[in-house]
Q: What sequence folds into this?
C-alpha cells in the first residue's frame, strides 16, 4: 500500500514533524513518497535519506543556524543560506535526489520569475536549502540560472505533488490557524508572521480534504516561526498529536504497533 507523507513549512515549528516521524515509526508505517516545503523539505529529505527520527532531531539541535559564522555579508538576508551546505553534505555525500531511499518532492519559489519550482531529481542540497530560505531572513539560493527562496510562499502544503502516486496521504501541518487577539500582535515580526500564515492557510487548508489523515498540533500556535527555544516541547507536541490522530483514525489500516 502506497502511503505518502506531506510536511508543511513552519520554521522551527517544523521540529514537530520529527515527533510525527517517531509516532509513525512506532505504528510501523512505511512511507513510500514524501513531499515537503521549507522546514518540511529539510525534515523530509533527511528521512528520505535514511535517517531515523533520533538522528534528525540530533542534527537539528546541533546545527547552529544563527551562528555568527553563517551571517550574510553583502547579500539580502541575515543568514547566508549556502553556508549551511556542508552541514547537509555529511548526510548527502552524493548530493542527488536519486540517492534517496524514498522519492522526494520539494518546492521552492523562483524569486526572479515569481513562479513555483518543484524539485524531485538532480542536485539535492541546494533545493533543500532554497525551499527553507524564508525571505528576508535567509539569502536566496542560486540554482542553475535563477535564485530561489522559501517554497511556502507559493505552496506551503504540497499535497498535490504526490496525491496521484499514493492511495493514502498523511499530512502534517504545523501552522495552526486560529483567531488571534490584538495583544498577540505586539511586534512587527508578529504581524509579518501572521500575514504569512494567512497567505499559507488560504492555499493549504482546502488541501486537507485530499489527505487520509491530517496531523496539526494546535498548541504550536504558542511557538514562533524562528524561536529556537523549547525544541523538545515542540517535538513532543508533534508526537502527541500524531499518536492521538493515529489512534483515533478510522481511515487508515494500521500496521502492528511496535511501541519502540
A:
Amino acid at each position: 500500500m502506497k502511503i505518502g507523507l506531506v510536511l508543511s513549512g513552519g520554521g522551527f515549528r517544523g521540529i514537530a514533524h520529527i515527533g510525527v516521524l517517531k509516532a509513525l515509526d512506532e505504528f510501523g508505517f512505511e512511507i513510500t513518497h514524501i513531499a515537503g516545503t521549507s522546514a518540511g523539505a529539510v525534515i523530509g529529505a533527511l528521512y528520505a535519506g535514511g535517517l531515523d527520527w533520533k538522528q534528525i532531531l540530533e542534527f537539528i539541535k546541533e546545527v547552529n543556524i544563527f551562528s555568527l559564522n553563517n551571517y550574510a555579508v553583502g547579500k539580502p538576508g541575515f543568514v547566508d543560506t549556502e553556508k549551511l551546505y556542508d552541514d547537509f553534505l555529511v548526510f548527502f555525500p552524493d548530493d542527488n535526489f536519486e540517492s534517496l531511499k524514498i522519492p522526494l518532492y520539494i518546492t521552492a519559489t523562483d524569486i526572479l520569475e515569481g513562479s513555483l519550482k518543484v524539485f524531485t531529481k538532480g542536485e539535492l542540497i541546494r533545493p533543500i536549502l532554497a525551499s527553507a530560505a524564508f525571505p528576508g531572513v535567509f539569502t536566496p539560493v542560486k540554482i542553475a540560472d535563477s535564485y530561489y527562496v522559501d517554497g511556502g510562499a507559493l505552496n506551503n502544503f504540497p499535497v498535490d505533488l504526490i496525491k496521484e502516486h499514493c492511495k493514502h496521504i498523511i499530512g502534517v501541518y504545523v501552522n495552526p490557524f486560529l483567531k488571534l487577539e490584538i495583544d498577540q500582535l505586539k511586534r512587527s515580526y508578529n504581524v509579518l508572521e501572521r500575514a504569512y500564515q494567512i497567505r499559507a492557510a488560504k492555499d493549504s487548508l482546502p488541501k486537507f480534504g485530499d489527505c487520509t489523515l491530517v496531523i496539526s498540533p494546535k498548541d504550536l500556535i504558542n511557538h514562533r516561526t524562528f524561536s529556537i527555544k523549547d525544541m523538545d516541547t515542540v517535538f513532543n507536541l508533534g508526537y502527541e498529536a500524531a499518536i492521538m490522530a493515529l489512534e483515533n483514525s478510522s481511515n487508515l489500516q494500521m500496521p502492528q504497533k511496535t511501541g519502540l
